[in-house]
Protein: IclR family transcriptional regulator
Amino acid sequence: MAGNTSAHRSAGSGVVERVLALLSAFDERHRRLTLTELAGRADLPVPTTHRLVGQLVQGGALVRQADGAYVVGRRLWDVGLLAPVQTGLREVAAPFLADVHAATLATVHLAIRDGDRALYLDRLSGRASVPVVSTVGSRLPLHTTGVGKVLLAHAPGEVRKAALATLTRATPHTITHPTRLQDQLRRVVREGYATTVEEMTLGACSVAVPVRLGGLGEGDVVAAVGAVVPSLRRDRARLVTALQVAAQGIGRSLVR
Amino acid sequence: MAGNTSAHRSAGSGVVERVLALLSAFDERHRRLTLTELAGRADLPVPTTHRLVGQLVQGGALVRQADGAYVVGRRLWDVGLLAPVQTGLREVAAPFLADVHAATLATVHLAIRDGDRALYLDRLSGRASVPVVSTVGSRLPLHTTGVGKVLLAHAPGEVRKAALATLTRATPHTITHPTRLQDQLRRVVREGYATTVEEMTLGACSVAVPVRLGGLGEGDVVAAVGAVVPSLRRDRARLVTALQVAAQGIGRSLVR
DNA sequence: GCTAGGCTTCCGCTCAGCGGAAGCAGTGCT
DNA sequence: AGCACTGCTTCCGCTGAGCGGAAGCCTAGC
Structure:
């Protein structure tokens, strides 16, 4: 039951490490990479990259497009979907998210905290033309998003401290002053929901509430659900209510 | 602009090939595998598997659970989501699928044909307790599912011929008689929708319609949308209408 | 205690992998 | 046209990373 407990070389000079480095060279902002970019981002010599990538293409893990650029292949898509990334949470939450979406027509998100980022597990995009940067699998800063603020407000002290120390700016409205954000986070805990106003993307506002194990009350905060809309003027109360209903439903279903 | 045109060894004895074999050992029915299972399914010696898998775990591509079993890791989930698997189609279709779901409360599917299978690109699960086997990334037979029948009815002749030659049985209601299925497929083309009655799963019926490039009319069939419900008695007409509206909307949006 | 099955470690051989260097397009500038 | 430049591809001889049989280890079951 112990298992694979080799001290092993931690160095990154094995083929496996290199392959993983190549795969990790892709991210949301780099879905298409040329050979040289790939080599650069994985920190490998070009000929080596060429050979490895060739094999990955042959195996269907990558695909080479007509113009020579490489993209992630369907084979990896298949395998990736099998990862038990909060499968339970996502399955349980899906219908509740759909309810919120149906009732509000907003873009609805389910996110958890992954280190110092909000990891988006699911998204239902609204029809309204609100600019939304997140997709499933995105990781966005905690202090610029609705779900992020909720998750941050309920994160352990050291996470919060670290986050407050590095408040990067995304738009002119991003809150970069630690004290001001800290005040907001206290309010988030007290009032039970968070909002953002064009802090991540111009033209997009959001509301989010925590999902607590067992529903309302003092259960651990395991996730957050949020909605993105063009403006909060009209709908804040309505959205908060809808999200809270969904969050309670999700939390209650999780225990069972 | 040519590129990676090496004849190369097609044999499967490189580290890359082995790694891919290990990853492909996972599928929907085998999300958790022990070392020995992994070795068996990838056709590799156990010690070799042990070493490679150890490195994959170290790189976060796999995760070893407390009981020793391996599952796909979050790192691969991340990368897999970046695959351009019909990204355009999925994004365009999402809001329309949500509409159908909201209107019918049924489980709604978007699928394309991938060889001799229906590949499920998206799913909105209904609240009703209908047994549904498909998840995003599933591949199911073409002749046992609603979306599959639609895709098969509009597939090239040779695909249809091959499919009719191997009608595997999933339930007592599965249609395994070629002539009978062929008649049904003709009707699907004529009437514009397909149905199944407990042919894939007992207790589940489905309706599906084609998505044509440009909407209604003679555009190529590029996908199918379908709904799963406990029974067709009450809702058939309503479902067909809802699905057709969505399919037209998707098809029209695809061209723009 | 004994057996069986599966996991882990060892270790010496060898061949797959390596990557510098050179060749080969395309492209843009003069 | 000529030239410079950038990025992709191929070559090839050296070498150490990978290999996997064998042995050891641990747990579970009898």
